[in-house]
Queue: 2 jobs
Job 1
Amino acid sequence: MRERADVWTGVSWIAFAILAVLLILPLGRLLWASILDGGGGFTLVHYQKFLAYPYYSRTIVHSFLVSSLVTLSALVVAVPVAFLLARVHLPGKAILTSLAILPLVSPPFIGAYSWILLFGRAGYVTTLFQSIGVSIPTVYGMHGIVLALSLNLYPFVLLMVTGALRTLDQSLEEAAQSLGSSPWRVFWTVTVPVTLPSILGGALLVFLTAFAEFGAPMIIGEGYQVLPTIVYSLFVNEMGGNPAMASTAATVLVACTTGILLVQYWAVGRRRYAMSQLRPIPPVRLGPVMQWLCAGYAYLLVGLSLIPAVVVAVTSFFESRGPVLYPNFSVGNYREVLFNVPRAIANSFVLSTFSTLLDVLLGTLIAYLVVRRRSASTAALDSCVMVPYAIPGTVIGVAFIVAFNKPPLVLTGTFLILLLAYFIRRLPYSVRAGSAILHQIDPAVEEASISLGVSPLKSFAKITARLMLPGIVSGGILTWVQTITEISATIFLYFGAWSTITVVIYRQVSSSNFGSAAAASTLLLVAVFIPVLLINWVVGERAVAAV
Amino acid sequence: MGANLQVEQLHKRYGDVAALDGVSLTIHGGEFFTLLGPSGCGKTTLLRCIAGFLRPDDGRILCDGERLDRFPAHKRDIGMVFQNYAIFPHLTVFENVAYGLRARRVPPADLRKRALEALQLVQMDALGDRRPDQLSGGQQQRVALARAMAIRPRFLLMDEPLSNLDAKLRVEMRTEIRRLQRELGITTIYVTHDQEEALAISERLAVMSGGRVEQVGFPWDVYQAPRSAFVAQFIGTSNALTGTLAPGDGEWSSVLIGGWTLRARRAGGLTGAVLAVFRPEALSLALDRRDVPDATIGEAEVVSREFLGAVLRYRLRLPGGALIHLDEHKPNAARLTPEGARVRFAVRAEDVMLFPLEEIS
């Protein structure tokens, strides 16, 4: 058998080419724009300026502060619930676990918006208290961002920790007990240390996501600027924008997220304790009082994180005039949204569907290359394809504008630039989803097909791809959900007719059209929740853990 | 009659490791041939080269004189049975077996007949509609076998097919595999690390180590006349003692081990330090009677005993400290030698094999 340049070699070249054009080129141009002075020479003056003026430099502090607080509160609320879900009998546990996933897929800017509906200047709760003569502080600023993001992101910790606890084998704790440890001691000396990498992993994921978040701080921050929002402000300010400073801020942002990711690899990388599990630890039955207390706590947290969805849905049926809402039932908001911006809704569905299909197609092929055709070049491909994971949407947005607004590739203002931005942002997730399922498929199954006389490419299609299908579909649905709720890159790249539903919501909230914002948000949440709940039913929560 | 297979000077390297270091073998048509060796010896690499999943760096593989290694895996017409069976989990039992026939565009009526025939051979024809997850390990094994045989391949390759079954089923299945293979007369290459299984099932076998073939032969030859210390120690249980060959040219060689002189087979060309290897069944407890001709008598202390059913195996410590095994057949429960007792034993000279010492590393 001669080693031929087969289809897979072609796939890997296409993958490298795509990454070069959609990743290396934009990021290179971004860096370039930040170190160029007016005359075309090299300068670090933008970086000096960024670090010297508190207006810019404090955003670094803000970003780290907000992310730390979000991570801390996510840990505090989610870790106990994770232990309860994994180890204690709770009534309605299945529903609880399904609902706990929803915050993760609802966009944080909708969360932020609904907290404004409740506790903003004209919020329901604020005005209620005003009517009895008590004035309560409003939700704008840092604590609002932290509130919205922690309730959005805690499921990361929840999923990772329950996952780790469920793969613990009973024998591990039994061994510790038989060696003379009390149950309490076993918990602290065995269970917690073994779970710690997952807790840490979840925490760093929350930190990274909070750090890159653009929508929530933009809506609820009100002048409390973090790195992603300063990038946007610098880009669109009244003076016509400052591309050099925006590029500088974006580069600083990427440097930070890359650093966080490296810490994550270093801290969590090799410390996973994979067990070949035989018997999972059965949940404990508590007395009725304790059981209801525990269940109450778990329901309280999940309920709290679903408040935004409920508030937005209820508000959407109120009569509205600008920021003033009247509690009479009306479908006026929906009429307004559907009549005024049908194009944006259609755009969202079309764009996310096409970019998801591209992601799934290329992601599956790359996953196959990386897992089954191991070589130096596929290892390099594996690392390259994970790069977008470290790049916040805001940065992709700026970088795409900088790179694609002049020849040879002019894409700004087109459908294509949004499609490609979505595609590259979500590619790592598709590759991950694909390789996760591939690792569970015995390579011999494909070889069996080949030995029975079916060519390698056909064997891949008939056997391996077919067996990957459940994982590909659930991964694809999650990609779709994440794409249709995308705002941070969209806000830079949309243009005129190519607006999306997230942009509509953002614009309506900014101009205090709370009614139609609520209707658009509700439509988006319904579009996102239904498929997620469906795959959760069909495939189980393992699929969602791949988000 | 099945096709014959020739492997000539096959080389395969992984970085610095030579997985195959010049392997040559001839496997006759219709033969049941086993590749036996410890893990990492190259046996699976060789099998995968024959199947076409690995490309050798150098050497040739010939099938009935034709260059097999020039064909891609899916055109080699080879049936393969994998260690984990590799049953297609999304297809029924029948569809699994029909898979290779469909690839060959066998017409529907014929396809059904041939698939059912293959299932009948392994007594699985009643379970054609089952899904693989409803089958036991032994049943999956049968389906894998039927699937490989349904295409009427030129060879059957089996990669440790029994290693995932429990001990009793393993023995049952190996008898079954051998029966089928004989019935169909298909050339079969079987890979295993289990020397007992290899001895039981093979017509001929190749013992491999470090990417090389140590010995090819019939099972009893390999067991009784191993050509190297490695083969002697890998196959069966062996006692191995280092000693010095005493000069002289009588009927037997004499090896000095500590203060003890052990009589052994004549060893041509050996001098100096040697390794004396003999099996536990070559020893017997010599109860003061010199009833074993040409035997060496030794003294030792019983360290422990293992009751293995048909055999009672003693571990004995020689005066020099070395430990050896001694098998007593049909042990008499009333006359067991207790642990700690000093015993005299006899070693038959014809059962003591000598090897150069440097062979054992």
Job 2
Amino acid sequence: MALIALQAMTPNAIAENFNTTRQAVSKHLRILTECELVKQEYQGRKIYYSLEIEKMKEIDKWLSQFRKIWQTRFNQLDKVLSTIKKQKK
Amino acid sequence: MTKELLFDFTVDKAAKTVYITREFDAGLSLVWDAFTKQELLDQWVAPAPYVAKTKYMNFEVGGKRFYAMVGPDGQEAWSIQKYTSITPKTNFKLFNAFADKDENPQLPGSEWDYNFSEQNGITTVSITIYNESFERMERLLEGFKEGFTATLKNLENLLATLSQK
């Protein structure tokens, strides 16, 4: 993912960066394409793959919202704890 | 209170698990109470502007807590939790499911595992949440784009495939 975030690449070029075959890379890319996380562009016979930055951002956004809920919760708990500690003194 | 309190939040999509770790500037007994006593839980567990309302809570193995997150518009989202294991001031586990207002659970649910430990007056709480379905986790977030679940589901499958290798 980090590789194709920088530039569009062919499956062959991607496979060269890993200890794997072009077929294995193609299979992963196909799934990623189905998820719309990666897009294909045809140039002649070659297919170049690149990252759908917006989709990745959506996932980050989704996770960060979830994270934020917990942050808010825990900040509230900090307040509850400090109030109780003061009352005990 | 100058010390930065640790907050770690990670999601393992392939394992459908969320890991949360947080430090609190308070002793173990107090933090344990804040997680296991109804009157304390209701003060913090709903992220503002939501408020938590516990109808009943029996903190014992096999016991249940039935509560709602009440939105600013008065809308109630009910959940039911069943305590499956309790080791006082160390660990407790529960099974959580969304429910309707008549206590009918909507499965699948999620399994929660809480761990507590104290060091130098700072209490660390580690929470592991295992979700039977990823969509369920998604439901926790209000108003998020429809159809995105499908994408996440695909991603989840993908990660599962990749992790088998």
